[in-house]
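seq:
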Amino acid sequence: MRDLACYNVADLRERARRRLPLGIWEYLERGVEDEAGMARNRAAFEAVTFRPRVLRGVHTVDPSTELFGRPIPFPLALAPTGAAGLMWHNGDFALARAAAAARVPFTISSASTMDLEQIAEAGGRLWFQLYLWEDRALSHAVVDRAAALGCEALFVTLDLPVPPNREYIHRNGFGTPFRLNARNALDVALHPRWLLGTMGRYMLGGGIPTQANLPDRLRSKVTRAAMPGALFKQDDLDWDGVRALRDRWPGKFVLKGILHPDDARRALELGADGVVVSNHGGRALDSSVASISALPEIVAAVGGKMTVLLDSGVRRGSDVIKAVALGADAVLAGRAPLYGLAAAGEAGVARSIELLRSETVRTMAMLGARSVAEVRALAPG
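struct:
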């Protein structure tokens, strides 16, 4: 994998930027409105510092830990990400295979362009993320399918009650549904590796991908508008609706998009097994607090009674360690593996995970922490 000549996530990001047409790249890379939320996420990570301990004998460093009672090689899982299938042919499967090979959990997105059953063939430890469709029966059906496939956990994303304000989509001519037009046709033509390697392979293999995990009568190609009832709609979701999902789901139940300690406490009362402290990677509310800034209060609010994950802005192994030192059980990485996917498919995803793991181990050694337990004993600042 080192023959990719990518030595950090930023290198993978640059490869992805060169390969993708502008509209697909901006969907991956950008946030909302003025993108202050994205900048705030990174600034908050960079503001966290440590006082390293020395002479600790760090010739053996073990970054392994547990999530939901099962081992993972280091405190990371792959976050759910939409539109992976537009960045690489069958991108969701490539993400899942790389995660399985690295023995880290992979979260299947309900916005994927591949069926749950297809992605599950990759093996590994699988979670499922849910946005609710306008027709709630569709959501319940896909939740039941995920349970039948053995997905360990259901992640219900809560931080997009209404569609986000992604103004760049209108400027670059790549809307939803995705269509060629006068503004984007030339740009697509200037990226032949993506055009032939991704869209060309779809055309040769049966056509443009569709919205997955819907009944056949409601499926539509990504180049066409969603059918009535098949739009995501969460503006009417409340705690009673989440409780109904908790009652329906037999496995671990996680609420994603929690930033307020009162919401974390309520999730605990409802019977959730975990929360994800997340501002959706700066892609929802632009003036949202940075996820890592909200983390300590939420950790204190739940008092060790549920799993706490951190999402949004993870780009380095040092970010993983900062989150763990502030109380997270692990982090979810979204954009970092997508950069790898868009750069080089499954090999690129594998490289992104390898980089984050090696940086995690190196950071631990530099801090004098030989285990995750010793990281948790550190006091940043």
